[in-house]
Amino acid sequence: MALEIIESCVNCWACEPLCPNRAIAAAQPHFLIDTDKCTECVGDFADAQCVAICPIEGAIVDELNAPMNPPGSLTGIPPARWATVQAEIAAR
Amino acid sequence: MDLPVIGHPVAPAAAGGCSAGSCGSTAQQMNGLPDDIRRKVQDHPCYSEEAHHHFARMHAAVAPACNIQCHYCNRKYDCANESRPGVVSELLTPEQAVKKTLAVAAAIPQMSVLGIAGPGDPLANPARTFATFRMLADKAPDIKLCVSTNGLALPACVDELAQHNIEHVTITINCVDADVGAKIYPWIFWKNRRIHGRAAAAILIEQQQKGLEMLVARGILVKVNSVMIPGVNDAHLQEVSKIVKAKGAFLHNVMPLIAEAEHGTFYGVMGQRSPSPEELKNLQDACEGDMNMMRHCRQCRADAVGMLGEDRGAEFTMDKVAAMEIDHAAAMARRVALRAKVAAELEARRAQAHAPAAAATQVVTLHRPVKAAAGRPVLMAVASKGQGVINEHFGHAREFLIYEATAAGARLVGIRKTDLYCGGDETCGDGESVLAKTIRALAGCEAVLCSKIGYEPWGQLEAAGIKPDGEHALEPIEDAVMAVWRGMLAAGRLAAPAAERKRA
To answer: What is the C-alpha to C-alpha distance for residues B47 and B45, in angstroms, rounded to an integer?
Structure first.
């Protein structure tokens, strides 16, 4: 049972000091979770701490590669709206 | 939220009948401040409009983490062409930040303040923020230290801020009502949970107000920043202004929302509009009856370097700083000497301004009674690159200072950028020429004062109803603005309300 940080991480450091297992380390091109140490905070906190502070949707995934913070869940921007606006910008 | 404010030295001076408003911020009103407050603000470009003509600051981008999300912020983006809060090009360690600050302070003797403003929240990164302050205070004790925070972690950090001799703290307070806050803040991280919606806003507001009270009780000057978001908090900000003033905040800075779809922020993507310069000024004017308002904010980046109107960050990247050889003791001596020189010049200018003003009043009283001084207010744009004088060519100006001239005098009421927060026309432009954009940015102004101006812009400005004026080059701004206003008055142009302004 462990979480993983993927390439959309922006290296903002918010998660690193919160991890009760010191499983998170700064790395290039993005922060990494040591899967041997990660417990998803079970027994320490009600919510996985990195997931609870991460500002980037999709940057942390579970063992099935499912985003812990899915699109729209943090920004409040509906994914369909995001896609429409990105298409408009690309077409300029 | 309703704790009384005790023994704050600013409130009486700030409240005392200033017809021109902005007591703490404008040049004319610097005299009215108690000595201890004046000492704190006289060389801080963000806390004193007068100081911003003469002094520079830098932001050290050591604080990447944030503990809240705001709908006007996107944590993903870094664009060298964009100037707005939260954007940086190079994240620094505290050691790098101190090295860079010392290099900047050696190259720019006007440099008087190091602020930490992000790109996240300084107090969500307390170890990095306070390590930077500790090291810098040791190596350059003449540099003022300053932080800008969302306030969530402020109550927990006030004691440590006081220990580090932080004399200036800016809190961004966009609301005092959680229902309004729920439309601005989608979530906060609080006590090991992510909290959404109204509950999140309520906690944030409580912490901001508590932090404000604690800072004031310790004699730390507080500036409150508010982002004006039309339809969300614009009607609410006057109440915010009243409350923070009652609690002892020194200065209120209402800033326009910056929201473009390209920024990838909630507001940008959802099509939330920004306020017009007129809407911003109207709200600032409405707040001003109660509070000192900051009018010279440039909404700078979290790694800005230089005078407020410029960004010299590109000259001080870490690889360039590493190659610089610096005599730090000599640099500090230069800064101290420059501050003394500026203080003496301003003192002399004040003394000069007071003497003839009294004489002029007597003449007016003898020949024409009070009514003769009437004349409607006029907005004028000024091109300046600092020192409080008109010293910038029209075509080189990337921003204009907007002054309002009335019989009572000239006062700065705003800043208008001509590059609309983005340097690269070819990537962001819509085909509109730079000149047309500039003329549009100056809507509502009846004159533009600059050191020089070319033939082509001259004609187009006149056609747009904005009179170009290059006759006051190198003169002090406020004197020149009033000279132009008196010329308009004498020509009989100020009797009627301002004619409908043409727009380019």
So the answer is: 6
